[in-house]
Write a structure and sequence with these properties.
Blueprint (H helix, E strand, L loop, with lengths): L4 H19 L17 E4 L6 E7 L4 E8 L7 E7 L9 E7 L5 E7 L15 E9 L2 E9 L5 E9 L15 H4 L2 E5 L31 H10 L1 H21 L1
Antiparallel strand pairs: 1-2, 2-3, 3-8, 4-5, 4-9, 5-6, 7-8, 9-10
This protein binds 2-acetamido-2-deoxy-beta-D-glucopyranose (NAG) (9 copies).
One 2-acetamido-2-deoxy-beta-D-glucopyranose binds next to loops.
Length: about 250
């Protein structure tokens, strides 16, 4: 019994170290939603402490997203938008979640025709399953949208302080972060370079088969996909448990 201790402990420790490091590169990978929705891809957006999780279905060009950000004030708003015609606010098709002081959240849509006319209106594309959630200081917008059949799209995001007495959105700050809150969302990965999220379609549950013929970087790829988001916690617990069992046996 005792002779098993050192190798198992070593294994447990090395597993834990190995498992913790890749998870830290992207915070979004460890995020979970209270409604247990899962998305194929996620990204730590570059500003405003915002995160986007998404699943793109190319066969009907539908995109499901979960956008998470802390509003500028606790009864403020957060927005995520697709801009089919430009890169900025003008033309954006926006999902805006407004949190009230009583804690309830109202999901709204804005077809932002110009900077000077930000009024609630329908979007120029089909959308469904639009809901919102508040957790730990952040609002999450869930939505599914029918997007143009393109490999990428322009998206923008924003956070603001609230609504005025007549219900209009109060303007967001114009800090560098706010102005930089836009980017290109790659729906279809252009190469193997982009970091994938959780394990893809082939048998996510069982242990990884020593994959394709390409041995050069299979170790790295296998590591990322196997130990992405969901499995890492389980594995760490398992290794801690191993340590514990060994200590007891000892
Ligand atoms: C993608 O959409 C098509 C058409 O609606 C559907 O048959 C398919 O199951 C969808 N794929 C996924 C992964 O949801
Ligand atoms: C596309 O496919 C998804 C997944 O199967 C489905 O939920 C959605 O309703 C479909 N959307 C359209 C516009 O057909
Ligand atoms: C919370 O406040 C908003 C805005 O004043 C109001 O529309 C909503 O009905 C309120 N919700 C509850 C549960 O009181
Ligand atoms: C938005 O679209 C829905 C259904 O298509 C319609 O019932 C509603 O009146 C529209 N709202 C606005 C503000 O155009
Ligand atoms: C959105 O706004 C644009 C520009 O004002 C307009 O052409 C379009 O019809 C609007 N779409 C909807 C669904 O209101
Ligand atoms: C809650 O938010 C804080 C600050 O953003 C973060 O440090 C913490 O990890 C979050 N906790 C959970 C359970 O998500
Ligand atoms: C709320 O904002 C709108 C748009 O900026 C403005 O027209 C309106 O006068 C404001 N209402 C109040 C009560 O300040
Ligand atoms: C999204 O995730 C899927 C499945 O993990 C992966 O095949 C795809 O390359 C990812 N897309 C992007 C743009 O990263
Ligand atoms: C191995 O990788 C090369 C270059 O990345 C690619 O062209 C080739 O198709 C891959 N082969 C297999 C079996 O995946």
């Amino acid at each position: 019994m005792a002779s098993l201790f050192p190798p198992l402990l070593l294994l447990a420790i090395s597993l834990s170290i190995f498992l913790i490091s890749p998870a830290q590169s992207q915070s979004c990978k460890s995020q979970k939603f209270p409604n247990n929705k899962l998305y194929a891809n996620c990204s730590d957006l570059k500003v405003l402490t915002s995160y986007l999780h998404w699943t793109y279905n190319a066969s009907n060009s539908s995109l499901s997203v979960a956008f998470t950000a802390p509003p500028a004030k606790s009864d403020g708003w957060v927005a995520w938008a697709i801009n089919p015609t430009g890169t900025g606010m003008a033309g954006a098709q926006a999902f805006v979640a407004v949190r009230h002081s009583n804690g309830s959240i109202t999901p709204r849509t804005y077809n932002i025709s110009s900077y000077y006319s930000v009024v609630q209106s329908n979007l120029s594309f089909e959308f469904w399953d639009y809901s919102t959630e508040y957790s730990n200081g952040s609002i999450t917008i869930f939505a599914s949208v029918k997007v143009p059949e393109k490999k990428s799209l322009n998206h923008i995001w924003q956070v603001g302080p609230g609504i005025n007495q007549t219900g209009f959105l109060i303007k967001h700050d114009f800090n560098q972060e706010n102005l930089a809150a836009k980017g290109i969302l790659e729906l279809v990965s252009n190469s193997a370079g982009t970091a994938p999220t959780a394990s893809p379609s082939p048998s996510p549950s069982s242990s990884p088969a020593p994959d394709t013929g390409n041995s050069t970087n299979s170790g790295k790829n296998g590591g990322v996909s196997l130990f992405g988001s969901r499995s890492s916690f389980g594995f760490s617990v398992a290794s801690l448990l191993l340590v514990f069992v060994n200590l007891v046996a000892f």
